[in-house]
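the two lines:
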Amino acid sequence: MHDIDMNNEDILAQHRELAEKNEKLLERHGIRAFNVMGAIGSGKTALIEALARRVAGNGVKAGAVAGDVAGNDDQQRFQAAGLPAISLNTGSDCHLDAHLLGHSLEELPLEEIELLFVENVGNLVCPADFPLGTERDLVVISVTEGEDMVRKHPKIFARSDIVVINKVDLADAIGVDPEKPRRDYEGINPNGKVFFTVAPEGEGVEELAEELGLRG
Amino acid sequence: MHDIDMNNEDILAQHRELAEKNEKLLERHGIRAFNVMGAIGSGKTALIEALARRVAGNGVKAGAVAGDVAGNDDQQRFQAAGLPAISLNTGSDCHLDAHLLGHSLEELPLEEIELLFVENVGNLVCPADFPLGTERDLVVISVTEGEDMVRKHPKIFARSDIVVINKVDLADAIGVDPEKPRRDYEGINPNGKVFFTVAPEGEGVEELAEELGLRG
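prediction for all of em together
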């Protein structure tokens, strides 16, 4: 736990190597994989469910890896939604890494799925440092987290080319302007794409799915 | 970053030693200190503001340390509320530690304050491992984080003797029952105390202040 010094070039290289291994394995099986990061309660699970529902309509099968320090609540949610899912408990670690994901890939029925959603451990700090071998990295934030979440975590946003601002239906009730985190993000990552969503209702999910190149 | 192996007994002992040093320094100045943990957007800052407002009415002066990986938004909020405040940026680290807090204590006007609120970095994973030398540890969670946040992070809740469930005014709108995390917490920590709050309105803050022994 907390035992990886990412300033150490050897270890960084090791993580990159394992990430490439995952990438190649996924490629061999024709699976596109997405690393879904975000704080606890931002709506990562609901967003993955919404994306999976959308592609399922076209017969595209998605799988999921649910990363958490403890418990298998999210795995159960994914399985209830009909997705093959693995629960990946990190113990005390605040992020997934390529090594852990590699073990999950051994357990998943890779021949059955075309998409893989990897739900990272819920926080905006640690996952920023660890490549997994996924095709794209998303960060999900919720308007309920306040207006300053991007400014407080520049690293993870600089790395992610898609930001999903979720629960925008609550913006007025909470008094948070979702345009503020959008502007902060565009300042950090001018080429990044921002989507406003209400995940359980599927609002905004179509546009996101298009950006991800998902048939649905 | 991520470079402390807390399984290493030597390092654990070192952290405990530094925490004791902080504790003694605070004691010498007659300052009671609280470690306020919780995810980003849970309402830690608003809760500290509400507690500080409450005690200020009785002439009790509080100070604050705002821990974040980047930015000084919270320090500015505390200063605007009239609290001497230090911004403690951890870079890539997902928690405060006793060493960092020790440096903040050197910068704060300790002779002017009677209470110190230490706002930890916003997540429910890393801060669990690090004693700071504070008198009590609180975890703030928001109903907007969902019903499963306690089950997903047993370690931090086992360590904390007070849990504040914040934003309970949004519980119905979000469809979250705050009794569920309360029950999960009581299962982990039968002696722990739970408070339901709406921090910006001061709802529930009186009861919490009493539990903390704060005059107000």
